[in-house]
Design goal:
428 residues, 0% strand, 17 helices, 58% helix, mainly alpha, 2 domains
Length: 428
């Protein structure tokens, strides 16, 4: 036998077999009853300090009774009796509605088909929801907590033996009806790793906004070279990016999403600091989905283009030559990409953005004129008449760097896109 509280839930989410379909059918009663309960909890959220049981008598009871009254003269006696019984079940469970929030606690639930461990797990599933509901009946988190509790209960009861009672209970908790959500249905919970990584911003918009953070970080390194890199990272980049994430791109985020975003930024801070301070964050990006359409030597050619200025950055982060070296590296990598890869129109747009004139190492944050750029062994452009020449040139430069012991292996991450790719990571 199901306990009374589960019978009440079944009253709302389960239909009856063998009843003639009409405007006063059991299916219609179920729908109307759900609407009454949803409306009751909606009003309670707006008035959380009201006495719940008194509120129930004033709002829920008349709503349910009205459903029955409308059907008294338009349905048969048997159907009406079932409706009256269901209405009584709804109105009589004041403790269940006002203390448990319409979620069974499983404290005294016993079943021959379920091991004690499964029932203990089901009881534990409800605790977070019950705690929040009893503390604050107006909390917006009740919708999410009710959904998660019910899903947890389903997983717990799947350890039970299959029986009509267990199957009926599982069916009730699988129902997506949720009286604590507006509309009475579960909101689809987005896994943390699938949350929009840029919030209301597009990837391009976010990259452009965070450029000022990169510029501030580099300028701090240039102006105060004796300061530790971590100081510049925290004060000039991290807090700047955090402000953009919350104020610009996630301004309409829910409290839950903002909490997750804060956790994400904290959990990735040390890793990102390492990337910024060891130069990997300033390696040039690969345009999306480009490598499978390039010659085998492309990666080596691109590494050769950027290795010089990364080595300079690691040696002296305030070196004035970084402005020209970074500009040269971009031109070199762009020409390698265009000459050694089959580029689509979408990828061409990426290439133009990745290798545009933004340059955090220059005083005006833009590339210097070509004639003023550095010429420390990095070609400004690949010759266009021989597509194999950049490969040979890259190999010669790579061998030279290896012999000097300064080679830094490039990785397929972008100094721009790596700033936001961390938003795709899951938070535990």
């Amino acid at each position: 036998m199901l306990c009374p509280k589960l019978l009440f839930f079944q009253t709302l989410v389960a239909g009856c077999v063998g009843i003639v379909t009409s405007s006063c059918s059991q299916k219609a009663f179920k729908k109307a009853g759900k609407n009454c309960v949803t409306s009751f909890y909606g009003e309670l959220r707006k008035n959380p300090k009201h006495d719940c049981q008194l509120f129930l008598s004033e709002r829920l009871t008349p709503c349910v009774q009205n459903i029955v009254e409308k059907c008294k003269n338009v349905t048969d006696k048997a159907n009406l009796e079932i409706m009256m019984s269901r209405a009584h079940n709804i109105n009589s469970q004041k403790s269940y509605l006002c203390e448990d929030g319409m979620l069974n606690s499983f404290k005294n639930f016993k079943s021959r088909d379920c091991p004690e461990r499964a029932l203990q797990k089901a009881m534990k599933c409800t605790q977070s929801f019950h705690k929040k509901f009893r503390e604050d009946k107006g909390s917006s988190s009740l919708c999410r907590k009710f959904t998660k509790a019910r899903e947890c209960i389903v997983r717990a009861l799947q350890r039970c033996k299959k029986s009509p009672t267990v199957e009926a209970t599982l069916e009730m908790f699988r129902d997506s009806y949720n009286p604590h959500c507006s509309g009475g249905r579960d909101r689809k919970l987005t896994p943390r790793w699938l949350l929009k990584p840029y919030g209301d911003c597009t990837e391009r918009e976010y990259s452009l906004k965070t450029r000022r953070c990169i510029s501030s970080f580099v300028r701090a390194l240039q102006n105060q070279p004796k300061k530790h890199c971590r100081w510049a990272f925290m004060n000039k980049y991290y807090f700047c990016k955090k402000n953009i994430a919350f104020v610009d791109c996630h301004k309409d985020a829910t409290k839950f999403e903002r909490r997750n975003l804060k956790r994400l930024l904290l959990s990735t801070r040390a890793y990102e600091e390492q990337k910024f301070c060891n130069g990997i964050n300033f390696k040039l990006s690969y345009p999306r989905k480009i490598q499978q359409h390039c010659e085998k030597a492309y990666v080596g050619a691109k590494e050769a283009c950027e290795s010089n200025y990364v080595a300079t950055y690691l040696k002296n982060k305030s070196d004035e030559s970084l402005c020209g070296e970074y500009a040269d590296a971009k031109r070199c990598a762009k020409n390698a990409t265009l000459s050694m890869c089959k580029v689509t129109q979408e990828q061409l747009d990426d290439i133009d953005f990745i290798y545009d004139t933004f340059n955090p190492f220059c005083s005006q944050f833009v590339d210097p004129p070509i004639q003023g750029a550095s010429s420390k062994g990095i070609p400004r452009e690949f010759p266009g008449n021989n597509p194999k020449e950049p490969v040979a040139l890259a190999r010669r430069r790579e061998a030279s760097i290896l012999n000097e012991g300064n080679f830094i292996g490039a990785k397929p991450c972008s100094y721009l896109l790596v700033l936001v790719i961390l938003f795709m990571a899951a938070i535990s």
